[in-house]
Amino acid sequence: MNKPLCAGLCLLLLYPVGAMAEGPFDGTWKVDMSKVQMPRKPDVLVLKDGMYECKTCVPPVSIKADGQDHPVAGHPYFDVMAVQVVDAHTVKETDKKGGKVVATSTTTVAPDGKHAHVEFSDSSNSNGAPVTGSAELKRVAAGPAGSHALSGSWITASMGDMSDNATAITYKEEAGMLSMSAPTGQSYEAKMDGTEAPYKGDPGINAVTVKKTGKHSMVETDKRDGKVVAVLTSTVSADGKTMHVLFDDKLRDRTMSFEAVKQ
Among residues 200, 255, 241, which one has the least CA distance to residue 222? Predict the structure, then answer.
């Protein structure tokens, strides 16, 4: 599994979803994994002639698939990647930053070539225990002739066995300020009038704005070095028990949605 897909899945679930005055968003929320709608735009991978390419990564990745460390530039969560071909259907990826392993993933393509299973561990945006989990992929286009079974276009059909630190988040609104904290170490305190504030604990986000759009709805915009990386539109149900979130990944041009349940 390529790093942006692996980390990206985790990151999509960790992104904050906001809170409103009078407390409709206050408290701890947990993502209902059965209600997650993953992006429908595929990731495109090619593993052929000893080279690994992630064509839809931002920026794209192209390295030797020899199991050795290779530098990659422009990615905030890792600076080195190693891709090991285990066998004709299995590939292992290891990502490092500053010499430290921050993520591993093993992707096994089914014998029919139409599906793949991924197991991953990712601490690239965690200040504590790594996020762990699994995913089921579905092939939507074949790779080039003579390439490894991993090659092709893949969408994430479902996520499974996600660790609790990836699916829980806590909010508190007081005196027009929204505080967010996550088990993985991310946090911010922002005025709910759209004023930009620091975002802490995530290499890929360093600023955030939160803006009310209704009594039970808001829009959050996450930025890195002045550039918008994600926009989240969140709405709490009338009974205050569930929260619907639409996540727009601006960097990779993908959208997903999920529901969180108040604990």
Answer: 200
